[in-house]
Amino acid sequence: ILKGKLYKSPLEAFHYSSFKMAEVVEDDFRIYLENKKKETREIQKLPRKIIRDFINACNSFDEVGLFKNLGEKFVYEKRMNWKVIIEADGLDAFKKLLHSQDLQLCNKNFKIRSSWVFNLPRVTIGVKYYPTSSDTDKQPFQKYGQIEFLLEGNKIVGIIDES
């Protein structure tokens, strides 16, 4: 860093070396951030795919796709204003709930928003959708909600629906 050059004052030598060190440190930090971003992307890749597949299967009401990534100890909760309205404990209870009129999870045509919050094993996503309305003259407003997924062993073991 310091080439065999004599400086007129210690302060001049300090400034020259600090500028050189700053360049080296900034390059190292940039490389560190790039590696950290790649590592984070690699960690989040599989959970994102699992959740996207579930939402796509939900939008197309593909039962095979819905249950493909669900774990054996699956729990579903539908919350409104932080109170549990509907709860299904187990895959069989969730399947019965899907076919009942109480749950309208698969009739909303969700669009995933760009905000994903990763606190593994929990992943929270924002969704937007148009609510289904029986009145054809009145155009419904777009609604926003969030769905929290609990992942365990590359399977979804819990869903908290706040949409």
Automatic annotation (TrEMBL):
Protein name according to UniProt: Uncharacterized protein
Species of provenance: Pseudopedobacter saltans
